[in-house]
Description:
The protein is α+β, with helices and mostly antiparallel strands and 284 residues long. Helix content is 52%, strand content 9%. The N and C termini lie far apart (184 Å).
Amino acid sequence: MSTSLLISAFAPFSSLTLSLPSSTPISEVYECLTERYPSLPASLDHSNLVFSTHSGYVPPPEASLRSLHPSDCEEDGPNPLVTLRLTPLVLGGKGGFGSQLRAAGGRMSSQKTSNNDSCRDLTGRRLSTIKEAKKLAEYLESEPERKAARAEAQKAKLEALEKKLGITPQNGNGEGSSQAPTSTDAVVDHVLAGKKHKFDDNEYIEQTKELSENVKSAVSAAFLKKKKKNGAANGNPNKKAKLSHEEESSSPKDKVKEKVEESKEEKVLVPPIVSAIALDAVGA
Length: 284
């Protein structure tokens, strides 16, 4: 009894149909396949190629084709058809890739955004506007409660301050009593907690003003002394600059007046000197 064998291989090898005896082992089937495709490995045992059925079953190399016949196949019937696939074995990793995929999927789902504020409802209003309106309504509804809590806190603060100052709270008739503090700490607390006091120490103020003026005058004198020292070292450039500045600033009329006055002084001073020289020459 022979068996019709349909072998589907991977690229670049095409499918092949063979008719072999049913007692032929799988290893001999591979030898028939290598005769047709010489580029395949010579032996099935020394390669990473295996024959498998469409259901994924991998028969051992010593198994015959009869073991792959269908269960309802008759021996006297027509030749049964057996389909095999020639597939290479792929080396796997250490495993655990599925758990990594599940963990990555969980992270991706947790990072998925759920912000739909930019969407609109059936009336055309944005969801963010509706949320803000709801928050504003809730805020306005809770306004009396916040005012009451604020007033309660202010009242408690006032009572604590009155208790610290030793002032008893007023009764129904508007009367109250205050007790003077006795200890030193209580007096200090009482003074610090009271009204603000004006600082009237005039002597201290005058001393501070006098000290500041003395410091300013000392600093200005030091700077002036330093300037004089630098001017003496440089040949009094400040005086020359001042004189040139005064000459430039004076008008022509002032210059003429100054020259006239200088000439008068020279005329007044010169004659006595000449007469004195003449008298000495005469021998008076």
